[in-house]
């Protein structure tokens, strides 16, 4: 029995990869210097995992941006327009990830989507009829060699062919067109790795935990039947995570492969599947240490589970890559009684070896300490929170009057023009803003100095919004480090780390706050800056809140109470904030539910019963008590909600804005089909890229929207907040947006009006 991990965080203990990459983008270091920084990090991580005593060490889990993009570039799945830019391989790679606008041309970035039910994003490979899948890159071989040269035998990891095809988009072609070439390319990879001395390869196939029936199951079987006809000498591990593989368990365990990786945390049926039988000649990589949350593993429970499995060859592993948790608890300053409850990536390595020792019959002190940790209740309930929840009734979740009536009242009061323009909330978090906040955090500047700084920024950006003619203004969220962490820091029941960074996309990270106990609000959170902003202008300023489902989903949740219960607690706290904003004269309040779609269960049969049946009411609870004249907006930066439009409608907000430009406005057809009633602001340009959309480009997009949505219902806004953008590009882009909206408004309004 041995130990293994699926992948390790790649940004670095102190986010070294982020800082080096961003320096390269700013032309402050060379490509060679960036490559050296990446090599240093990879080596440090392999050595750390090896020193911890882990047997199965992955390689090629490193990436400059995303491993799905790495796989696409390795296999020549690159749009012609990007190839034609004539850039170095590294710059071409970044052009795919971020778009490119410069001397070599102008291309958009690849679409970016959520990686299954996580807050990590992958880039969506684009297949066209002319795509020629073949092995053209060398990253996987280079990184294997690099580790081998350092004396470390690794197991190269690559996105498996079924997941790759399932996550990609196809234009004038279909997945089956590429099976033969794809299989040949993977076989070449196997052969080359075997020749280099590798003994295992890990094919990541999280798609297998979704519904895999009908043609999807056929595709999976075809790919693996063909792939495995040729023996390379490599042992193959098919690694799944984020759920159980109930639809294909039998297919999977009968494949001619050596290892099967299963998730025992999110895979509700995994244990039962394995108990129904597991072949003696295969190795089970049992994902028993939770790769997604930061709580210590309950050793006694895990060992009890492992002992029930009828498996002869066992590897103790994590439930998914450790990419989704921070690097180490060691740099945190939590008091010891608190800290002992946490295991970040590095500490999880120790958990794997502790479990291994105990399963081998050793009575370790770590096991005794773990038993003691779980013997005591961790927190006491907050009676006020429980009392409030006990008194909720059906009315607590229902806003009056109905949507159409509210819309009339609000339009009478606000007198907004056709196609009202707005932004999603945040403006650039410049180095100046971040540095000043860091100084405040370290007590190098006073509260008064910090407030003055934030106030001046708000005033400056309000003036700019007025100058370019936006209709509904925002204060810019300059006082916030992050839309979830900021709320966590202002709510009872939360803890937050100093350095608990987790990659969200590319070089961007988040520090998810930790829900430690019952959540409640003990003072207003956003009223100060929202009312400050409203006092500076006669135009409407939107209040800006994060919704309960998003706060829950982007925090590390408790495991001792249900997520539903935690979310209702958060909803009541945010309801208090909504009512305080309203009381203080804020007429439009946006409650962001950016993560609502992301946590939709991966299996369709679970969508409502396991999630939407409580997530939607939680949102309704937040705004159910506002006046009819208060307009509630919501925002989702992930638009793949075509299949759950009734649930989105049922949120009963007045206006919704969402990410749409990177996904070709596909959602609009569905909104039309489903007779969507809310006013909508489909994002008219992609904010994840530094390129500036022209007025003509935005005008075309608005025309596409108007072809599908009645003009009285359309708002014009970017895809998401502008916090990641530079000042110049943000201002130029939004100015183009308002210019495009005004031009179209003039076209729509009858002459003489
Ligand atoms: C909208 N999105 C969000 C998601 N998840 C969230 N939790 N929040 C989101 O907004 N998921 C989906 C999308 C896209 N995701 C992201 C994720 C992250 C960013 C982003 O801009 N991240 C920043 C870090 C933001 C932050 O926490 N800033 C802090 C700390 C800043 C910092 O690094 N300070 C330095 C000192 C700086 C100096 O001296 O110059 C330090 O502490 O050492 C803050 O501002 O206070 C990132 O850089 O990765 C965007 C979209
Ligand atoms: N109000 C937030 C939403 C991001 S999803 C922002 O603008 O950054
Ligand atoms: Zn967003």
UniProtKB/TrEMBL annotation:
Q: Which organism is it from?
A: Levilactobacillus acidifarinae DSM 19394 = JCM 15949
- Per UniProt, 5-methyltetrahydropteroyltri-L-glutamate binds at 15-18, 114, 119, 554, 598
Which superkingdom, per the lineage? Bacteria
Q: What is this protein called?
A: 5-methyltetrahydropteroyltriglutamate--homocysteine methyltransferase
Function statement: Catalyzes the transfer of a methyl group from 5-methyltetrahydrofolate to homocysteine resulting in methionine formation.
**Where is L-homocysteine annotated to bind?**
424-426, 477, 592
- Cobalamin-independent methionine synthase MetE C-terminal/archaeal domain spans which residues? 419-742
Q: Where is the Cobalamin-independent methionine synthase MetE N-terminal domain?
A: 3-309
Q: Which GO terms describe its molecular function?
A: 5-methyltetrahydropteroyltriglutamate-homocysteine S-methyltransferase activity; zinc ion binding
Q: Which residues bind Zn(2+)?
A: 635, 637, 659, 720
The UniProt entry, under InterPro entries, shows: Cbl-indep_Met_Synth_N (IPR013215), Cobalamin-indep_Met_synthase (IPR006276), Met_Synth_C/arc (IPR002629), UROD/MetE-like_sf (IPR038071)
Identify the residues that bind L-methionine: 424-426, 477, 592
**Where along the chain is Zn(2+) 1 bound?**
635, 637, 659, 720
Q: Does the keyword Transmembrane apply?
A: no
Family recorded in the similarity comment: Belongs to the vitamin-B12 independent methionine synthase family.
Query: What's the catalysed reaction?
Result: 5-methyltetrahydropteroyltri-L-glutamate + L-homocysteine = tetrahydropteroyltri-L-glutamate + L-methionine
Annotated cofactor note: Binds 2 Zn(2+) ions per subunit. Binds 1 zinc ion per subunit.
What pathway does this protein act in?
A: Amino-acid biosynthesis; L-methionine biosynthesis via de novo pathway; L-methionine from L-homocysteine (MetE route): step 1/1
């Amino acid at each position: 029995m041995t130990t293994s991990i699926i992948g390790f965080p790649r940004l670095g203990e102190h986010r070294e990869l982020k800082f080096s990459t961003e320096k390269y983008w700013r032309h402050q270091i060379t490509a060679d210097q960036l490559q050296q920084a990446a090599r240093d990090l990879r080596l440090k991580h392999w050595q750390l995992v090896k020193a911890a005593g882990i047997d199965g060490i992955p390689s090629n889990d490193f990436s400059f941006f995303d491993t799905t993009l790495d796989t696409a570039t390795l296999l020549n799945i690159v749009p012609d327009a990007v190839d034609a830019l004539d850039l170095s391989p590294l710059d071409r790679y970044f052009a795919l990830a971020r778009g490119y606008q410069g001397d070599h041309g102008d291309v958009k970035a690849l679409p970016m989507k959520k990686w299954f039910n996580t807050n990590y994003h992958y880039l969506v490979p684009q297949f066209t009829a002319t795509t020629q899948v073949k092995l053209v890159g060398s990253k996987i071989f280079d990184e294997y060699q690099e580790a081998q040269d350092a004396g470390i035998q690794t197991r190269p990891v690559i996105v498996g062919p079924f997941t790759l095809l399932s996550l990609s988009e196809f234009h004038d072609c279909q997945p089956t067109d590429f099976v033969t070439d794809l299989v040949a390319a993977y076989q070449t990879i196997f052969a080359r790795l075997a020749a280099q001395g590798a003994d295992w390869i890990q094919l990541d196939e999280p798609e297998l935990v979704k519904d895999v029936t009908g043609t999807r199951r056929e595709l999976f079987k075809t790919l693996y039947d063909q792939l495995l006809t040729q023996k390379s000498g490599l042992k193959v591990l098919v690694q799944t995570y984020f759920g159980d593989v109930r639809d294909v368990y039998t297919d999977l365990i009968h494949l001619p492969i050596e290892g099967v990786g299963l998730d025992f945390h999110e895979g509700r049926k995994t244990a039962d599947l394995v108990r129904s039988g597991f072949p003696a000649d295969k190795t089970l990589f049992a994902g028993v240490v939770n790769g997604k949350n930061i709580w210590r593993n309950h050793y006694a429970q895990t060992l009890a589970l492992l002992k029930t499995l009828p498996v002869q060859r066992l590897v103790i592993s994590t439930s998914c890559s450790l990419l989704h948790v921070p690097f180490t608890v060691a740099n945190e300053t939590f008091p010891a009684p608190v800290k002992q409850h946490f295991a970040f990536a590095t500490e999880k390595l120790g958990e794997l070896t502790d479990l291994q020792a105990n399963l081998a019959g050793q009575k370790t002190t770590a096991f005794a300490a773990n038993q003691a940790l779980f013997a005591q209740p961790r927190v006491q309930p907050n009676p006020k929170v429980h009392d409030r929840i006990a008194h909720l009734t059906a009315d607590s979740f229902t806003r009056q009057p109905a949507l159409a009536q509210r819309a009339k009242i609000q339009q009478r009061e606000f007198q907004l023009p056709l196609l009202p323009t707005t932004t999603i909330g945040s403006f650039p978090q410049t180095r100046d803003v971040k540095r000043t906040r860091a100084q405040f955090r370290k007590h190098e500047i006073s509260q008064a100095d910090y407030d003055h700084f934030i106030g001046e920024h708000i005033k400056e950006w309000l003036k700019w919004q007025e100058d370019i003619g936006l209709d509904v203004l925002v204060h810019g969220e300059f006082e916030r480090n992050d839309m979830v962490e900021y709320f966590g820091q202002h709510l009872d029941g939360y803890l937050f780390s100093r350095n608990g960074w987790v990659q969200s996309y590319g070089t961007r990270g988040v520090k998810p706050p930790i829900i430690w106990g019952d959540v409640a609000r003990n003072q207003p959170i956003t009223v100060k800056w929202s009312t400050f902003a409203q006092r500076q202008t006669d135009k409407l300023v939107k209040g800006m809140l994060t919704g309960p489902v998003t706060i829950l989903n982007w925090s590390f949740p408790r495991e001792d109470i249900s997520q539903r219960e935690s979310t209702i607690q958060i909803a009541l706290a945010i309801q208090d904030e909504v009512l305080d904003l309203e009381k203080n004269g804020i007429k439009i309040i946006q409650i962001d539910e950016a993560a609502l779609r992301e946590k939709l269960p991966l299996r369709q049969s679970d969508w409502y019963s396991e999630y939407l049946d409580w997530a939607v009411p939680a949102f309704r609870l937040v705004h159910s008590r506002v006046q009819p004249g208060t307009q509630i907006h919501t925002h989702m930066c992930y638009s793949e909600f075509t299949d759950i439009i009734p649930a989105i409608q049922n949120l009963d907000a007045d206006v919704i804005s969402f990410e749409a430009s990177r996904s070709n406005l596909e959602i609009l057809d569905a909104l039309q089909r489903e007779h969507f009633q809310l006013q909508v602001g489909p994002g008219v340009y992609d904010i994840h890229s530094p390129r500036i959309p022209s007025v003509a480009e935005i005008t075309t997009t608005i025309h596409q929207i108007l072809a599908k949505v009645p003009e009285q219902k359309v708002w014009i806004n970017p895809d998401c907040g502008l916090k990641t953008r530079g000042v110049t590009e943000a201002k130029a882009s939004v100015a183009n947006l308002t210019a495009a909206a005004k031009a179209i408004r003039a076209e729509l309004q009858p002459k003489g009006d």
